[in-house]
Design goal:
Length: about 160
């Protein structure tokens, strides 16, 4: 089984209001078009109404790694890998999710990340064996097998309300 962990715990200070309320539905819609078996949304600074399963991370202020650890801990023993996506990436392409999952399945790499024009972004697949190796700062600088998704739209990174 492969589950998706959506990181949506941040304070959204630059956005001016909880951007998760605006962007999360779009991210979830796109994830549901992919081959993931389950979705867990990690919340922290704000409560957000959603039809997806949620987990609250009391340590969200420590960084994205802390939020990710909360999401991973909420997954069942039958989950072999987690696809990590950000709630502020509303242009997430379901084909990018499927592509990194398929690369993980074929190669067995511990971490597989999508790249767009040579830039590493999300989605990122984490095999269960490395779930305990998540620093508070997150996994941006942790090595991963890179999967080109140049033919797809990058997920985006919305920080300000006028970008939504």
């Amino acid at each position: 089984m492969v589950a998706a962990v959506v990181l949506a715990a941040g304070a959204s200070q630059r956005f001016g209001s909880p951007k998760q309320r605006v962007l999360l539905p779009r991210v979830l819609e796109r994830l549901r078009q992919s081959a993931v078996d389950e979705i867990v949304v990690v919340l922290g600074a704000h409560e957000v109404e959603t039809d997806a399963r949620t987990v609250h991370c009391p340590d969200w202020e420590r960084g994205p790694g802390a939020s990710l650890r909360c999401g991973l801990a909420a997954l069942g023993a039958d989950v072999d890998a987690a696809v990590v996506v950000l709630a502020d990436g509303p242009e997430l392409d379901p084909r990018a999710v499927d592509r990194v999952v398929e690369t993980w399945r074929e190669g067995g790499d511990a971490r597989v990340a999508a790249t767009y024009a040579g830039v590493r972004l999300h989605p990122l697949v984490l095999a269960r064996g490395v779930w305990g190796q998540t620093p508070d700062a997150g996994l941006r600088d942790v090595p991963a097998r890179l999967v080109p998704c140049d033919d797809l739209t990058a997920p985006g990174d919305v920080d300000f309300a006028d970008e939504a």
